[in-house]
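Workshop exercise sheet. Pairs work together: one partner reads the sequence aloud, the other fills in the structure field after running the prediction. Swap roles for the next sheet.
Pair: D.N. / O.F.
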Amino acid sequence: MEIRPVGTEQPLAAPVEQPLSPSERAERLELVKAVTAVNESGALGSQSELTFSFDRKSRRPILRIVDRQTREVIRQIPSEELLQLANLDA
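Structure field:
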């Protein structure tokens, strides 16, 4: 955390994302296909769906099972706690 005197706020620069390597790009494409297949199969029932995203800092995939209506996260892998620990090392 950065502490600055009041009145000297400067906009924070957005983090620069590194371009994906071909293997990372292929891995993400496979993950998209797998998530789509799971959702189309109905394996999680009609009320839930699988979603994914990537943690910007650690670049690790985040899988979530969410309620289709409320968008409430039912389960997340890895957990927020593990992501925080991973980001301490990144």
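Discussion prompt: The chain has two helices and three strands. What would you look at next?
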